[in-house]
């Protein structure tokens, strides 16, 4: 009986539809190892450039907000 359950479970797992994925690793390795003077964080194309600029913009804005809050906390408020 145990053998029958084991065989059924094997059939369900192996009989399921498996997605065939194309291995893109060698292609990406060639792209990123290419010597073309471009920084590695921009070699991925337009999407990498957009993500890089968005990250830098958010970083600059966050730094400015932190500095503003520090200055605001350091300067005493005038009492009227």
Automatic annotation (TrEMBL):
Membrane-traversing stretches: 50-71
One Gene Ontology term of the molecular function aspect: oxidoreductase activity
Cellular compartments annotated: Mitochondrion inner membrane
Membrane topology qualifier: Single-pass membrane protein
Keywords per UniProt: Acetylation, Membrane, Mitochondrion, Mitochondrion inner membrane, Oxidoreductase, Transit peptide, Transmembrane, Transmembrane helix
Pfam family, one: COX7a
Gene Ontology cellular-component annotations: mitochondrial inner membrane; respiratory chain complex IV
Main location: mitochondrion
InterPro entries noted in UniProt: COX7a, Cyt_c_oxidase_su7a_sf, Cytc_oxidase_su7a_met
Family: Belongs to the cytochrome c oxidase VIIa family.
Organism: Phoxinus phoxinus
Pathway listed: Energy metabolism; oxidative phosphorylation
One Gene Ontology biological process: mitochondrial electron transport, cytochrome c to oxygen
Protein name: Cytochrome c oxidase subunit 7A2, mitochondrial
């Amino acid at each position: 009986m145990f053998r029958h359950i084991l065989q059924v479970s094997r059939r369900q797992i192996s009989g399921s539809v498996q997605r065939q994925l194309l291995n893109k690793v060698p292609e990406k390795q060639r792209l990123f190892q290419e010597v073309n003077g471009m920084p590695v964080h921009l070699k991925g194309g337009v999407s990498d450039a957009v993500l890089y600029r968005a990250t830098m913009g958010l970083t600059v804005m966050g730094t400015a907000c932190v500095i503003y809050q520090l200055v605001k906390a350091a300067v005493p408020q005038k009492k009227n």
